[in-house]
Amino acid sequence: MMLLGSQIPLEAGYQQLPMVELLIPGFAIISNMIGQIFSGQLSGCTRILCLFVLVALSKSYLLQLRDWFLEFFQWKIHIRPYEETYNMVQGWILSHKSDCTARSVLVTIGARQDNEDIFNACSKKPLSYLPWEGVFYFWYKKNLLIYRTTHTDLGFRIEEKVSISCISRSPSILKDFMSECHRQYLKTLRNKTIIYKNQGNNWKIDSTVDTRPLSTVILNECLKETVVKDLAKFLDPETRRWYSDRRIPYKRGYLFYGPPGTGKTSFSISIAGELDMNIYIFSIPNIDDRNLEDLFASLPERCIALLEDIDVIGASSPQHFNPSEPHKNRDIRCSPGRVSLSSILNTLDGVSSQVNRIFILTTNHLHKLDKAIIRPGRVDMKAEFELASKSIAKAMFTYMLGGQENIDTEEQSEAFAERVPDSKFSPAEIMNYLQRYCKAPAGAVENCGKWVDNLLEEKRMNK
Ligand SMILES: Nc1ncnc2c1ncn2[C@@H]1O[C@H](COP(=O)(O)OP(=O)(O)OP(=O)(O)O)[C@@H](O)[C@H]1O
């Protein structure tokens, strides 16, 4: 979110002179004093004293003049940290190395870029510098722009404020600058999915990943097709109109349930990429009611909200939950999770959840879920993610190791699937095994029996 304006906050430490009328007598006094000082009529001490008074008086006038000047000639854009506009501007500054005049910078270790030399120790984790507390200046299309960051200690958190300003009669140069940042940002995001995770009450970009095509998540085709078709139908403008005409909140909820490592998160991220949406991941075990409410309120429109491990919420009974008096429900807090059932229900039903949103809830324990959470309206479709069947094991082999020279993929994948027990291993476990043989598919088939025995034994021991 950016705010454009020309209001200048008062600087701390001096009082603004309020009246224009004071200026004329003020100037008269100042010019009179200057005349006296340079006339040579005053003694040395009096002259110095007058000089001090003159400086003190002039300061207020000069500051007042500066404020008037800025009020008429300065434009300012305010940028909220944690929003995409912030990343957009930071991206521009990083890529143009425009921060070289910043005298106060924040240094971070960045992620390695794909095209970098992985054997060069320095390029593995390059350092990035970003302007931090203070002001720095840079040129944009021959205009001087001023980047300002301030940090205010609010007691419970530090609030960061960022603004960019310029001296001009029109805001067009600032808007041009933002458009260029925006264009560049969109270019870097082509075929990317941004994954947000919460940090306290704020959303932070966790990673920006290459869009994962749906075909890379190996699932029962029928399940995949059903979910994708349902989403496509929901996002159809006709459907949206239908919801709007009937005053039904335009949102859709899904529950993905099944054992760990069956692709619930991967499929959600893949869907986000397919729909060109960003995904906001709530780790339910790590947040409380207050976080949940704030995080929901700050979700953007048109996004996927993924609530992971929804079974970990507290166990307040649905009889205690009264949708008509949500404020009373807030007191129902329970263990073991720090988020209460009532809070989840309030949030899913609340105003902030009703705009253009897709919710995906995930759990490994369907039976632990309270019926109130998964009732229609909150969850519109349930999808079961299962352990890998033989046909999934075969498809995973083909996907991971197929297409290499000198192998008969069909035959090898058949042989592999033959040795993998039906519905005992998760796709994640199979994936993990196959990765070891990315360049030696024959080895994956050859050593499969030993791996199966070991994994079955491990599972027996962990029971
Ligand atoms: N069906 C699948 N197809 C392809 N890869 C998969 C599949 N299932 C899991 N994986 C791989 O296994 C890893 C873990 O998968 P993921 O996190 O999506 O599972 P999950 O069901 O969400 O697990 P959990 O319930 O523990 O959160 C990922 O790296 C993913 O690529």
From TrEMBL:
<dbReference type="InterPro" id="IPR003959">
    <property type="entry name" value="ATPase_AAA_core"/>
</dbReference>
<dbReference type="InterPro" id="IPR027417">
    <property type="entry name" value="P-loop_NTPase"/>
</dbReference>
<dbReference type="GO" id="GO:0005743">
    <property type="term" value="C:mitochondrial inner membrane"/>
</dbReference>
<feature type="domain" description="BCS1 N-terminal">
    <location>
        <begin position="48"/>
        <end position="217"/>
    </location>
</feature>
<dbReference type="InterPro" id="IPR057495">
    <property type="entry name" value="AAA_lid_BCS1"/>
</dbReference>
<dbReference type="Pfam" id="PF25426">
    <property type="entry name" value="AAA_lid_BCS1"/>
</dbReference>
<dbReference type="GO" id="GO:0005524">
    <property type="term" value="F:ATP binding"/>
</dbReference>
<dbReference type="InterPro" id="IPR050747">
    <property type="entry name" value="Mitochondrial_chaperone_BCS1"/>
</dbReference>
<keyword id="KW-0812">Transmembrane</keyword>
<keyword id="KW-0472">Membrane</keyword>
<keyword id="KW-0496">Mitochondrion</keyword>
<dbReference type="Pfam" id="PF08740">
    <property type="entry name" value="BCS1_N"/>
</dbReference>
<dbReference type="InterPro" id="IPR003593">
    <property type="entry name" value="AAA+_ATPase"/>
</dbReference>
<keyword id="KW-1133">Transmembrane helix</keyword>
<dbReference type="GO" id="GO:0016887">
    <property type="term" value="F:ATP hydrolysis activity"/>
</dbReference>
<keyword id="KW-0547">Nucleotide-binding</keyword>
<keyword id="KW-0999">Mitochondrion inner membrane</keyword>
<comment type="similarity">
    <text>Belongs to the AAA ATPase family. BCS1 subfamily.</text>
</comment>
<dbReference type="InterPro" id="IPR014851">
    <property type="entry name" value="BCS1_N"/>
</dbReference>
<keyword id="KW-0378">Hydrolase</keyword>
<feature type="domain" description="AAA+ ATPase">
    <location>
        <begin position="250"/>
        <end position="389"/>
    </location>
</feature>
<keyword id="KW-0067">ATP-binding</keyword>
<protein>
    <recommendedName>
        <fullName>Mitochondrial chaperone BCS1</fullName>
    </recommendedName>
</protein>
<dbReference type="Pfam" id="PF00004">
    <property type="entry name" value="AAA"/>
</dbReference>
